[in-house]
Design brief:
CATH class of the largest domain in chain A: Alpha Beta
Oligomer: heterodimer
Radius of gyration of chain A: 24 Å
Strand content of chain A: 5-15%
Number of domains of chain B: 2
Largest sheet of chain B: 2 strands, antiparallel
Mean pLDDT of chain B: 90
Strand content of chain B: under 5%
Helix content of chain B: over 70%
Distance between the termini of chain A: 62 Å
Structural class of chain B: mainly alpha
Mean pLDDT of chain A: 86
Number of strands of chain B: 2
CATH architecture of the largest domain in chain B: Orthogonal Bundle
Number of helices of chain B: 13
Helix content of chain A: 40-55%
Chain lengths: 453, 303
């Protein structure tokens, strides 16, 4: 009997051991699931095939002009903008005369950053990426993405057509590490139907007005909230609010924290007041707020241009306004999505990637992107186009030129500062913790992060 | 030809010697354990003493720096606390529920078999899928459970995974719900293995149900129970998937567990493999400290 039991146990134990192995592997497995559920499982499958044939092709031609090469292209355009991006990539694959094939793999942003780092280390990274400008310092600083100084000469792309600040935001230590793909800042989305029901005429112009309007809109019986402020997984609205109230996060030379100040204490007290008023859903993530907006349950939210398509699809009667201003002006954190090339990418693949980036940065492609998505143009030739100028959303989003401000250029921990300090800070303050204590702790944490090499 | 038969004979000699053939059967498990448990374990101890990120640039020796850093890191201590709270709540709950249900369902009747299968279904589902399902069911805005609670009991709608006071208990209950079928099935086998003479003798002496349960079932089940306690404890100290899928460690890091924090440190920005490895070594020590006494005690009884 005992032996039988022991046998059962041993077999269960070995199953358990296997299961445990499965557990430790689950993050990566889960991320693969996630990318597969994004509808790209077939694509990634063919991607593997194609990468093999790509190497083959590169072996045959071995030319540095990228002809006949297949490249892998990772990005995180999981929303409806991804469909537009896909159609542009498909069009390029069909039309380019160099025989270049761009194999796109779309995955959630978190998954991308989790997969990319080990991929670069093991030499299995794709030839082309879209990353954010806040990732540049981390990747470029350790030489994990290739400098692209020769891009304009190699492809004959007109450098003077780019808005200078877009290129500046993507260069470091005198090198151009990334090339722009789109740029945006933060805007105020508001639900016109809820505004009308609350008797409000127009979008608020200041944060105080926004809080007042939120109080009017909130209706607990209908589960309608006036305004949404996310505590993770969204745009960094609190950075914008802090700066617009005359506060600072980092010193001007980005070497230490200036978070612990009176101006910021006032901002945190304001955030706490709004949270306590019950006019905002507590502990909401960016995705939670998106869902509420799409369900006519949220009056206002600060977000980026990509929200337009979702709102349109759900027939929400919405408007876009500039982000509210604080006591010392209007500030929105501006971000650039940009092309980058991981280190160790073979020359022919790099050449092919260059060609696709050059194709993207033509007036025609960028215009299509702006017209379909409403993204503000960074190419002067697109901005000058009368059709683009007439587009309602492009007009609203072009406010980036008025109040867009970059955050943490050249700071390796820029995106960590937001994810691991700023969002937790507002989460704690909104949950009722003492703002002064939280500011001090957050400030110390930022100093620690900046001090770590 | 002769050579082949020679080898065959050698193999047969091996095969019919119990003490030797055991190695053949053990080999697959041992190889897997060596490759995927032992080697990584040694590596993480080594990496724990290094300054090293995932890009393998600028590697240098760090001494005990990463270990000292851990004990000064509020976030690490918070993760340790959360993990121990999770394990100490989840493991007993699972054992008790599993034991009670096993005791109800151990007879092989049609209904019992059906219920046992139903309770086992969540065990074979992936935690990721179950996490997503419960996230939707319990969502404060679109979830069915808060809605029904509001309609039926008039309880204000709660966002279970989004509030500090409810997040951890919710994760714990969800895990118990998913896993108790596993414990139950092991204990069912254990109870079925208890000789019926004991129960018959007890009945003749006039013992009632609970007397039989506490005086016969539990003592006879101790080896199975010990096994369940150890595996559950170790498993729940490694809690990760459910947190990753449902709460992401929030709200306010109230559900951030050790493995989750280790994962975040090593595989997302700041990609600090040295520190992540040091923390996993500390975690190994914690798991050993909690499970070794139970393990030794169980084996002492076996002998």
């Amino acid at each position: 009997m005992k032996r039988k039991l022991a046998l059962v146990m041993v077999s269960v134990l070995s199953v358990g051991a296997l299961a445990a192995c499965g557990n430790t592997a689950s993050p990566i497995a889960a991320s693969q699931d996630a990318s597969a559920s994004g509808g790209s499982s077939a694509a990634s499958e063919t991607g593997t095939d194609a990468s093999a044939s790509g190497t083959e092709a590169s072996g045959q031609s071995a030319s540095a002009d990228g002809k006949g090469v297949t490249i892998q292209f990772w990005n995180s355009f999981t929303g409806s903008d991804g469909d537009i991006l896909r159609s542009i990539v498909d069009q390029y694959n069909k039309e380019n005369t160099d025989g270049i094939t761009v194999n796109m793999d779309i995955m959630p942003a978190e998954t991308l950053s989790e997969k990319l780092a080990p991929a670069i280390t093991t030499g299995t990274a794709p030839a082309l990426l879209i990353q954010g400008n806040m990732d540049m310092a981390l990747y470029a600083g350790e030489g994990n993405i290739e400098p692209m100084d020769d891009f304009f000469d190699a492809t004959g792309t007109d450098q003077s057509d780019f808005t200078q600040s877009a290129l500046d935001g993507l260069s470091m230590d005198g090198h151009q590490y990334m090339i722009p793909m789109q740029w945006f800042t933060q805007y105020l989305y508001y639900n016109k139907d809820l505004f009308k029901a609350a008797g409000i005429e127009k979008a608020p112009d200041t944060w105080d007005e926004m809080a007042e309007d939120a109080a009017k809109i909130t209706n607990p019986d209908k589960k309608v909230y006036g305004a949404g402020f996310c505590v993770s997984g969204g745009v960094t609205w609190m950075d914008s609010m802090i700066l617009s109230n005359g506060g600072k996060i980092l010193s001007d030379d980005n070497t230490k924290s200036e978070l612990n100040s009176d101006a910021n204490l006032k901002t945190m007290q304001f955030i706490q007041k709004v949270a306590n008023s019950g006019d905002t859903p507590k502990g909401a993530t960016g995705a939670d707020l998106d869902n509420l907006m799409m369900a006519n349950q949220l009056g206002m939210v600060v977000n980026g241009p990509w929200m337009v398509n979702g709102l349109k699809e759900n027939d929400i009667n919405f408007g876009v306004a500039p982000i509210p201003q604080g006591t010392s002006g209007r500030v929105g954190i501006a971000e650039i999505s940009a092309f980058s090339i991981p280190k160790g990418t073979p020359e022919d693949q790099k050449a092919a990637a260059y060609k696709f980036i050059a194709y993207w940065n033509t007036t025609a492609t960028c215009k299509e992107w702006s017209m379909q998505n409403g993204f503000p143009p960074y190419l002067k030739s697109v901005a000058a186009d009368s059709e683009v100028q007439a587009n309602e959303y492009v007009k609203a989003f072009s406010a980036i030129n008025d109040y867009g401000v970059a955050f943490g250029t050249g700071v390796k921990s820029a995106s960590s500062i937001n994810a691991d300090v700023m969002f937790p800070l507002v989460e704690n303050v909104m949950a009722g913790n003492d703002p002064q204590t939280e500011l001090k702790a957050a400030s110390d944490k930022i100093d620690q992060m900046l001090a770590a090499k | 030809m002769e050579r082949v038969t020679g080898m065959w004979n050698k193999f047969k000699n091996y095969w019919y010697r119990q003490d030797k053939v055991a190695y053949i059967f053990l080999a697959p498990s041992l190889i897997i354990l060596f490759l995927f448990a032992f080697i990584p374990l040694v590596c993480s101890v080594v990496i724990g003493f290094m300054n090293m990120d995932i890009f393998f640039n600028n590697i240098s020796f760090a001494g005990f720096h990463n270990f000292i850093k851990a004990f000064q890191d509020d976030r690490f201590l918070n993760a340790v606390k959360n993990t121990i709270v999770f394990a100490l709540a989840e493991m007993p709950l699972q054992i008790i529920i599993g034991l009670l249900i096993a005791n109800l369902l151990y007879k092989n009747t049609f209904l019992n078999k059906m219920f046992r299968s139903v309770f086992f279904i969540p065990v074979v589902c992936s935690m990721a899928a179950i996490g997503v399902v419960w996230s939707l069911l319990l969502d404060g805005n679109i979830g069915m459970v808060p809605y029904l609670f509001n309609k039926v009991f008039g309880i204000n709608e709660i966002s279970y995974f989004r509030e500090v006071r409810t997040a951890m208990p919710t994760v714990i209950l969800m895990t118990v719900w998913k896993n108790f079928g596993y414990t139950m099935s092991i204990l069912v086998v254990g109870i079925q293995g208890i000789p019926t003479d004991y129960f018959e003798a007890a009945e003749i002496d006039g013992a009632n149900g609970s007397q039989k349960f506490f005086a016969i079932t539990i003592p006879q089940l101790l080896p199975s129970l010990g096994f369940c306690i150890i595996t559950n404890l170790i498993g729940s100290l490694q809690v990760f998937d459910q947190v990753y899928v449902t709460t992401g460690g929030g709200p306010q890091r109230s559900t951030e567990t050790l493995v989750y924090y280790i994962y975040k440190t090593g595989f997302t920005n700041p990609y600090d493999l040295g520190y992540a490895s040091a923390m996993s070594v500390i975690m190994l020590v914690i798991i050993l400290a909690l499970s070794l006494p139970i393990y030794l005690r169980m084996f002492a009884k076996e002998r």
